[in-house]
Design a protein that fits this description.
Strand content of chain B: 25-35%
Structural class of chain B: alpha+beta
Largest interface: A-B, 73 and 69 residues
Number of domains of chain A: 2
Radius of gyration of chain A: 27 Å
Number of strands of chain B: 17
Oligomer: heterodimer
Strand content of chain A: 25-35%
Number of domains of chain B: 2
Distance between the termini of chain B: 22 Å
Shape of chain A: elongated
Order of helices and strands of chain B: HEEEEEEEEEEEEEEEEEH
Strand order of the largest sheet of chain B: 13-14-6-5-12-15
Number of helices of chain B: 2
Number of helices of chain A: 2
Structural class of chain A: alpha+beta
Largest sheet of chain B: 6 strands, antiparallel
Shape of chain B: elongated
Helix content of chain A: 10-25%
Order of helices and strands of chain A: HEEEEEEEEEEEEEEEEEEEEH
Number of strands of chain A: 20
Amino acid sequence: MRSLAIGATGMIAQQLNVETISNNIANATTTGFKKQRAEFQDLLYQNFRRIGSTSSDAGTVVPTGVQVGAGVRVAAVARVLEQGNLNVTDNKFDLAINGSGYFQITLPSGDTAFTRAGNFKLSPEGIMVTADGYPVQPNITIPSNAVDVAVNASGEVLVKLDGQVATQNVGQLQLATFANAAGLEAIGDNLFLETPASGQVVTGAPGTPGFGRVVQGALETSNVNVVQEITTLITAQRAYEMNSKIIKTTDEMMQQASQLR
Amino acid sequence: MENSIYVALSRQMAVQRQLDVVSNNIANMNTAGYKNQRMLFTEFLEKPGLHEKVSFVQDRAVVRDLQTGPMTQTGNPLDLALTGQGYFTVDTANGPRYTRAGNFRLNDQRQIVDGGGLPVLGDNGQPLTIPPNTTDIKVSGDGTVSTELGQVGKLNIATFKNEQFMTEVGAGLYVTDEEPQPAPADTKVAQGLLEQSNVKPVVEMTQMIEIQRQYASAQRLVDSEHERIRTMIQRLGRSV
């Protein structure tokens, strides 16, 4: 019976929905995390009686046919790129992006990864690195005799050296944007990679048109709204239950048919 | 003579297919833009004898409930919902397709595409391309798409005289031979919202219970008819 398979497609889709929501909730406090949402599509339709077919010699047209759908599938797990809240930490090396763009990170393999998580630290050599120790691109080295570091909205890193009055520019942060940032591939550790779907990377200074501004001493929190996630979780659970009821009903009907004497 | 069994059978066949339709509704209860479907039955009358009439049931049509589904807020600037009549137009290799599912996004060429990656068409029949280095996409109520650099284009929102003539082709898309009409003035595009499916799960659940009971009662009819014929054969056979 077709409904058995249809119920199964519904259960599979809802299972993935719950998995997506779980990952959102698990990352509710992950810096720079962007929530994901499962999107569904109806499957193909089978025509038992085609719409527009004639129903008599006089050419009367059937206004609506009999078409039965084959269920549902997950079309995409899309990332929602809404800005997260800015959480003030007062740590000099915590940088948040207000607007669009990604920090560029050099992976150990030499490839470039992209991140919104600006919880940077200093390496023993004074290079600005991520929590995993991967250097920020372009490399920014803070001299060991620096007493204060300031990063302004346009990404200039200014240090005040011991015994000096004037600040000194030691580097310029660059942000990366993409034609379709939702098409980036997540590789974990808050990092993303460029894909054919995202389009070519475009770099520019923070604050220039199309690029966000850098906020020092703040971190971008995840954009997960926990209350919303919980309500979606309940909806998903109920949907899963109802799809299992389809299977139960179909099974009972098949049982009746098989008990025919 | 065995007509009553066939009548019950016609009911069982129809009800089974009705369950398929209800199942599809439930499976798609979280599918954006999905429209609930109902099966229509008609009587199929046959006159096997001069004064005899036998009435069967036939699943005649599946109609769509065209009510607007509830809206949810998503926070994605390219999630668009239509309030009132109308369909978004997307481009496929086989001509335009129409959809109510407004979960759009950008592709790598910054074209607005639907969930399946098909370009969404503007009123000039061309895909809408968001210029590079713009971040602020605004869609106004009449479907005009603009960024901070100005207007990009206008969404093509089509309506049709008879929406029931439209055929589902899956993935939330419809195809039709009818000429598209411009959308009425009261159709508005809402940005950041998504039209959910208009399936009412409770109604579908009760439908399913009803289907199950009807299937069982048709089954009992077949059973008792079978019993009746058997008794008849046994009794008539004994007297010989």
